[in-house]
Amino acid sequence: MAIETPKYTVIKKDGKIELRKYAAFLTSNVEISADDHASAGSSGFSYLAGYIFGGNSSSKKIAMTAPVMTTQAKNGTFRVSFVIPSQYSMKDLPAPNQKAVTFSEMNEMTAATLTFSGYTSDDKIASKIQDLQEWMSKQNLTPSTTPIIARYDPPWKPGFLRKNEIIIGYKA
To answer: For the whole model, what pTM was predicted?
Structure first.
């Protein structure tokens, strides 16, 4: 059985960059203070995995999805998010046992994405964000969201086999 990911259609493809139209989807989230993306992702993952593995008011297990998404705020905090399986609505979700876990809806959006493999060090993330922003500028696309770092694979998967993306929304 494949792991569920957000639904989208490809509008345009240019090498490892795609313009996509995403359907709306729900996320579970946690805000983490951390020094870098890796430590934020690790800490945030623990909270969110606890929720989907039964750490909720119904002790219900919820299917794992991909990607694990991280965004960085200017004040040194990160938001780590899991996609909620599409069978759920906001009213169907059991309450989390950890108050740090919240839910939100990602509205339908158009986004530019850059797919890359390997590990996601902060230097590599910054370089990939810059690459995507430069490409968007050449296409006259104005970013409308903070860059999202999307990781699709478990930490034990070798780096060269890992799938990662930078996702930046823009106004269509």
So the answer is: 0.95
